[in-house]
Amino acid sequence: MKMMNYEQPPESYSSAPPPPQQSVRVEVDNPASKPLVTYFILGVTVVVFLLQLLTQNTMGIDLPAAYLAKYNQLILSGQLWRLITPVLVHGSIAHIAFNMYALYIFGRNLEYQYGHGRFLLLYILSGFAGNVVSFVLTPNPSLGASTAIFGMLSAQGVFIYRNRRFFGSRARPILSNIIFILGINLILGLNPMIDNWGHLGGLIGGLVFAWTAGPLWEMRTDLQGYRLVDQQEKWQIFMGALIVLIAFAALAIIQWF
Predict the structure, then answer these.
(1) Among the options 134, 142, 146, 154, which is catalytic?
(2) From CA 52, how far away is CA 89, in angstroms rounded?
(3) Catalytic residue at 142?
(4) What is the pTM of this model?
(5) Cα 92 from Cα 221, distance rounded (Å)
(6) Active-site residue among 126, 142, 154, 199?
(7) Domain boundaries, the chain
(8) SS3 state at 91
(9) What pLDDT score does 173 carry?
(10) How far is CA 38 from the centre of its chain?
(11) Is 146 part of the annotated catalytic residue set?
(12) Distance CA 174, CA 169 (A)
């Protein structure tokens, strides 16, 4: 739970609202107090990359990438885990450094807002969605966590937009910054060496999950004052995850026909 200062709450939430220019203290019922899942994903990904370096230097082959990266023919032969596991492997130190930095910067805030389980679902489903779109639209092998990172960014944008009345004048510049970051990276992704289809798929997957299952705040009052509470029920989160899973699984099935 975090303490935050907001502009005055909507009048409908209080019989005696503060003066228009007065700031009030609002408690936010954040479902996570520490970004444990963010640190776990970061740690696992770094360990896998170290194994990549180790096997390359000792065996002459990148074993983790060989078993986890997206290879269309191997997926078609039944290795379906490759629609999820590419987020764990990377092609270079710069590649993993960029993605893990983005995970560290954006993942912590998202996990505070989403909670551990919902954030993990967001990360996995965004990666899945990105790899499915890549699987369907490009024959090239691919790897990296950027599919999930794009999903995180779009989810952050959806969160700010849906709860914009609580962010006041800060909402517009935050949204503009997110759109700018996404736009710049999609433009950079036009490089033929970058899997931009994966980026786009991850962005869409994260957006759909955030819109159907992401936090939707409402203001409540109690003896301690104002409190922001997430209206989403567990069944709504489950249904949101199911929508993303079924939609992109159906898209992947096209490749078998």
Answers:
(1) 146
(2) 8
(3) no
(4) 0.86
(5) 51
(6) 199
(7) 31-256
(8) coil
(9) 94
(10) 11
(11) yes
(12) 9
